[in-house]
Write a structure and sequence with these properties.
Order of helices and strands: HHHHHHHHHHHHH
Distance between the termini: 34 Å
Number of helices: 13
Structural class: mainly alpha
Strand content: under 5%
């Protein structure tokens, strides 16, 4: 484990050095992300103000603000550490450069999915955390220590589920070579993640909500940790989120290993 931590630290230093070589681009990307968050918060502020302090699918203004901050922070973690690496897998397969990674004396999944850290998106994590703290302060901090601990655990379960979905989709590039449609499916998943699960209650949308809760549990990624802090612990969904995270990590690992066994280098 120490070896992997040292290697990850080296990846982090190299990634930061690369970003600092182009500081203007780094600062511009952070400014764009901050502007996007500001526009998003302004939209929801206008929405709730126009409702006279009402609720949307059972979420009040500051509860939903916490939900948005949680989504922004978790998406920032995924984009910083995993997104660029996983989406680049198809290029490694197409060019044959994957051969170089398979020859290294290190776990292939770790090397392929963690080799590059995009520091320009890391401020999203800080901004999302700031929004969550502001929302909890506005709610007079209704959470207790056990809720905070559960939130942290389930937040990282959400990261694990998002990482697993991303790895599952991108592993298919070994067979499909070009995985543009699969990457677009990932953006569909991220779109579903940012909405409360309660929105999918209704005559014709309930099957969609059930499917993306229990079969492909995308709706659990943000909903479960955010709900715990705002409304309290739901043992059923908390347990199911833990179970889903473990199953998805194992499944994505097995699919990735299967994909590597099916891989044929550019020279073969």
């Amino acid at each position: 484990m120490g070896r992997y931590l040292r290697l990850f630290g080296a990846f982090a230093r190299i990634g930061l050095a690369n970003e600092m070589a182009f500081r203007a681009n780094f600062l511009m990307k952070m400014a764009v992300e901050a502007l996007w968050l500001g526009i998003l918060l302004l939209f929801y502020d206008v929405l709730f103000r126009s409702m006279g302090g009402g609720t949307v699918a059972g979420w009040d203004r500051y509860g939903y603000l916490f939900f948005v901050g949680c989504n922004y922070a978790l998406s920032g973690v995924v984009e910083t550490f995993f997104l660029e690496n996983c989406t680049a897998l198809s290029d490694l397969v197409r060019s044959g450069d994957l051969d170089q990674y398979l020859l290294k004396p290190i776990d292939e999944q770790f090397l392929v999915t963690c080799r590059h850290i995009d520091w320009s998106t890391f401020p999203n994590v800080v901004q999302g955390a700031g929004v969550m703290l502001y929302a909890m302060a506005a709610l007079h901090w209704p959470a207790h220590l056990t809720q905070v601990i559960a939130f942290v655990v389930l937040f990282f379960c959400g990261v694990a589920m998002a990482y697993s979905f991303l790895l599952l989709l991108c592993s298919a590039s070994v067979w499909m070579v070009r995985n543009q449609s699969l990457v677009e499916m990932w953006w569909l998943f991220t779109t579903l993640m940012r909405y409360p699960r309660e929105l999918f209650h209704g005559t014709w949308v309930s099957p969609i909500g059930m499917f993306f809760t229990y079969v492909v549990p995308v709706l659990l990624i943000i909903n479960v940790p955010a709900t715990i802090m705002v409304r309290g612990l739901d043992p059923w969904f908390a347990g199911f989120a833990l179970f889903a995270a473990v199953v998805l990590l194992i499944l994505s690992r097995q699919v990735f290993r299967l994909a590597l066994r099916s891989y044929r280098s550019a020279s073969s």
